[in-house]
Amino acid sequence: MQENNPYLVLPDVTVAPYLLQYFFEIGLCKSTGMGLVPVDWVDLLAWVNLTGTDLRPEEVRILHGLSSTYVMQANKSKEQNCPAPYPIIDQQTPDKVDKVKAQMAVIKQRRSKRD
Questions:
Q1: 20, 13 in Cβ contact below 8 A?
Q2: CA-based angle 49:50:53, to the nearest 5?
Q3: Does the first or last residue of the chain, that is N or C, have fewer Cβ atoms within 10 Å of its Cβ?
Q4: Which helix (H) or strand (E) holds 102?
């Protein structure tokens, strides 16, 4: 992934890496006769019940949002001139990097206050 592409810089997932693990376990999306669709609420509820995983409502919304975003980008990526869904190094400016770091710090701080 990132280590194989020197031009791609992805953010470190330090706030809630377990959500990405859950996301891959549940499945990125579903395939229907009409194409890809996001994992729906019933699927998420079934996964929570079957695995006995205790999730907060906002964590379930994040998982649903990840699936919706994945499907949206997968559909967009079918277009021939679709730009990459990630920033290339020369597109990243220090102010953008600082903004993302600040947002991640706020999320981490909010989470630590709840726990």
A1: yes
A2: 60
A3: C
A4: helix 94-114
Contact of 73 with 85, CB cutoff 8 Å: yes
Evaluate if residue 48 carries a pLDDT over 70: yes
Residue the block writes with tokens 């906002």: 58
Q: Whole-model pTM?
A: 0.64
Please report, as a single letter, which amino acid is at residue 81: N
- Is the separation of the CB atoms in 39 and 63 below 8 Å? yes
Task: Tell me how far apart the alpha carbons of residues 94 and 12 are, in angstroms, rounded to a whole number.
Answer: 16
Over residues 78-106, the mean pLDDT reads 76
How far are the Cα atoms of 34, 40, 106 from residue 31, in angstroms, in the given order?
A: 8, 12, 35
Collapsing DSSP to helix, strand or coil, 18 comes out as: helix
